[in-house]
């Protein structure tokens, strides 16, 4: 996984970039659609899903910082998810949610995308802060039986 990413970043860094990044800047005109790079789109969708500016920035920071807390939130007695089907399902739900957030972050700020972004943002925090610890505790309890 690391080798393809290093090759991409070294030999063709603009391959996945947006063509709008190469237009000359005009300080008198606001661009019609501001879109960050593809790897920040999930956080950008969370930022846009909250109407309050400060709340959006706090949610953006929390969405990135929560990724650092995942190892601390892991309280399961088994390390691998091979024999933990509930955790597998929750993991793939999180991956799907991140893909939806990435897609919504690349879309313009219009009616259906705002609602989808708000629901996906709520689901993102619910999965990481509520479902993962609850399912791990449930699986630990099932292992003790």
UniProtKB/TrEMBL annotation:
It comes from the Eukaryota. Keywords: Electron transport, Heme, Iron, Membrane, Metal-binding, Mitochondrion, Mitochondrion inner membrane, Respiratory chain, Transmembrane, Transmembrane helix, Transport, Ubiquinone. Pfam families: Cytochrom_B_C (PF00032). Its cofactor is heme b. GO terms for biological process: mitochondrial electron transport, ubiquinol to cytochrome c. CDD domains: cytochrome_b_C (cd00290). One of its GO terms (molecular function) is quinol-cytochrome-c reductase activity. SUPFAM superfamilies: a domain/subunit of cytochrome bc1 complex (Ubiquinol-cytochrome c reductase). It is a multi-pass membrane protein. This is Cytochrome b. The gene is cytb.
